[in-house]
Amino acid sequence: MRKDEKKNCHLKLGTLYDSFLISHSLGLWLKQNVDSDEVASGSPLPGVKPQKLDEAIQIPKEAIEILRNQVFGFDTFFVTSQDPYEGGVLFKGNLRGQAAKSYDKISKRLKDKFGDEYKLFLLVNPEDDKPVAVVVPRTTLQPETTAVPEWFAAGAFGLVTVFTLLIRNVPALQSDLLSAFDNLNLLKDGLSGALVTALILGVHELGHFLAAKDCGVKLGVPYFVPSWQIGSFGAITRIRNIVPNREDLLKVAAAGPIAGYCLGLLLLLLGFVLPPSDGIGVVVDASVFHESFLAGGIAKLLLGNVLKEGTAISINPLVIWAWAGLLINAINSIPAGELDGGRISFALWGRKASLRITGVSIALLGLSSLLNDVAFYWVVLIFFLQRGPIAPLSEEITDPGEKYVAIGIIVLLLGLLVCLPYPFPFTDETLTSF
């Protein structure tokens, strides 16, 4: 592939971008500690140090012959050809049997012959959708460096997010954000709402970390992203090591939204059922529930004929706070880039499909941004910080189990239900009061 094509690969979609993936992106991503196989996730937060694309093969010819004849074989992966690959070798051939079992056999033979000198990847060639094996010397893996300590940067983002969560729940300050610095005492009025939304965000991140620990995946410090519109856009959490397979990626990616949705839905239902503590609560127009299919459907089910077009109703503020948490979960479930939804779509349908889904999602968000400023800022954030591509997995061929596929699809569907508008009118005929 020509150098000018490589320079422009991130600006192109479809086949050109897919074809470039194996020959260039893997080398760009494998940048972390050699002993733990840590990698950068492709996100510029923090930055990635790319390797030179014209490096000579560092694996000796004798070692390549051993790889071809003794590590690979008829029972695992029969090699038919090989190509130079940034410090390593890309083998093409025929995969024998199940990919996961073949990967384990090849990895064991590789370790028996060379110890921890080389790292194996079993991937799908986007040019012909056939399996390929990539062997890279661990000495070519570069540790990642950051301008400032990760915890310091994450802490700074977190403090700003706390401020925006408070602002989001103080209507008197939303029209003039700068006045908040002159009226800091008003911020305490937003404490309850900020705590509820922060709790949902915290449970979301806890879900990620518990699933990651169970799968042996290392996660970086979460960077909470502030938002003037909804308080926060959630968190950017890097995957610091090489994920073994798509099922493990799916477990980690889906665990956060599932935890966040469960708590958010519980609090939303409580908000509809419990009367406001002050007897007044928050007065909103019924039309606000048209903004979300999920919130509108639940509101219609529980409030019945109380919910009428053009009628103001009093609700517990817990409804608004929980709704904000659900929305943050939903926008992180959009199947784009390195968002939770992007990782889920990759785990469900593979790299090529997920790249195209990312393109469609960003395009739709771009159209939505013409009418919604939240969509505008979110698509900018995705494009510059979270568009991926996702770092390579050790073995990307094996599909996840059916149980986890169902969980992943549920997460994506819930995200749609929260973000899509409720299209039906609130009339007197349909449902009765709860």
UniProtKB/TrEMBL annotation:
It is found in: Plastid, Chloroplast membrane. Its main location: plastid. One of its GO terms (cellular component) is chloroplast membrane. Residues 194-354 form the Peptidase M50 domain. Keywords: Chloroplast, Hydrolase, Membrane, Metalloprotease, Plastid, Protease, Transit peptide, Transmembrane, Transmembrane helix. One of its GO terms (biological process) is proteolysis. GO terms for molecular function: metallopeptidase activity. PANTHER family: ZINC METALLOPROTEASE EGY1, ZINC METALLOPROTEASE EGY2, CHLOROPLASTIC-RELATED. Belongs to the peptidase M50B family. This is Peptidase M50 domain-containing protein. It comes from Phaseolus vulgaris (Kidney bean).
